[in-house]
Amino acid sequence: RKISEKHDRVFATGCLNPEEAAKQPRANAAFVVLARNQELEGVVQSLKSIERHFNRWFHYPYVFLNDGDFSEEFISGVQNYTSGKTEFGKIDPSMWGFPDWVDHEVAKEGINKQGDAVIMYGGMESYHHMCRFYSGFFYKHELLEKYEWYWRLEPEIKYFCDITYDPFVEMARNNKTYGFTIAVKELKETVPNIFRYAAAYKRKYKVNSQGLWEMFLEPQPEQTKETEDTREKTIPNVILETEAGHQNIPEIDPDNMEGEKYNMCHFWSNFEIARLDWFRSQEYNDFFNMMDRSGGFWMERWGDAPIHSLAAGALLAPKDIHYFRDFGYRHTTIQHCPANAPARQSPNIPYLEKTTLNEKERIEEDEYWATANLDPPKENGVGCR
Ligand code: GDP
Ligand code: MN
């Protein structure tokens, strides 16, 4: 909370006139939608929502990506609901699936074990590939080359409020790199070793964090000089030096890593508005490569959300991050609702909200938003609901 208020302000309060805002020049930006043909219906739901609440005024283009071929049905299906230009891209196998340097059998075995352990999506090979694609490759796709900014859109999401200004333009004007709507805690069993590698990256590349790293740390009791010294000796300088990667995740007590422990907090990446050049930077790619070589995308089920978040923690400052606290947004059972957001904030972790809804609460929230009149619709039909 302190971090967000000190370094980051809401871009606009209340509803502006989007038709006025849309007279300004656009940013060099696009929506990015990764999807499979069978997700058409969910994608259309998301398109209807973003068009109704934003893109009917701003007409940003869409880039649809798929590891397979999009069907004619999918292409014409989404084009019925998009007011901006659409492009459809196939993802090259070099960006999806197991790379040459990994033993495919070992990786598959690792994935099967996670399935046996009932880790969420752990046994689903395609999900691992999707997470790795969104961690280290989407920004290299040829259809994104010409863009400076992207806004990630997933199937079956919902925006509740009209977005009456151009968030890309505001991100640029305010010198922001990465924007989010929801921060939540990751399922521990999907990332048992992720933090050790992220911390090892910081040491190996001598990265001095700029204050955001602390957001991802469990609060620590005051340490005595003595315990710090002991810790120093038990930490290897670089954990990962072998290219064999996945077979060599060393068993080191994560609690002994510089005395730092990951609090599992991460920006939920199914929504993101961010600068592509940050992902394309040498620093980010060094980070991704080091994480990748560990094999954690297969031997564990690292999501792209904690990857993006820990990279941000290592490489960005709080002032580079924007919390879109004014966007009403839902993905499956978790949502951010601007009306009551402050009350939901956790005092310990800036940004973190309690946002999980059960079915009954979800229906209640839907009814609430259907009737709420927080900011009465203006003549042009704009309203925050
Ligand atoms: P969740 O949000 O973590 O429950 O995961 P999703 O199933 O929504 O997947 C995240 C995103 O990746 C969505 O945009 C999906 O459409 C997309 N996605 C997941 N798996 C695949 C896949 O195997 N192929 C393609 N083309 N897209 C996928
Ligand atoms: Mn999803």
TrEMBL record:
Keywords of the record, alphabetical order, are: Glycosyltransferase, Membrane, Transferase, Transmembrane, Transmembrane helix
The question of whether ATP-binding is a record keyword is answered with: no
The similarity comment for this entry is: Belongs to the glycosyltransferase 15 family.
What fragment of the full-length protein is this?
101 to 485 of 516
Keyword Cell cycle assigned to the entry: answer is no
**Protein's organism:** Lithohypha guttulata
Gene of origin? omh4
Instruction: Please report the name of this protein according to its UniProt entry.
Output: O-glycoside alpha-1,2-mannosyltransferase 4
N-terminal signal peptide? none
Q: What is the lineage of its organism?
A: Eukaryota, Fungi, Dikarya, Ascomycota, Pezizomycotina
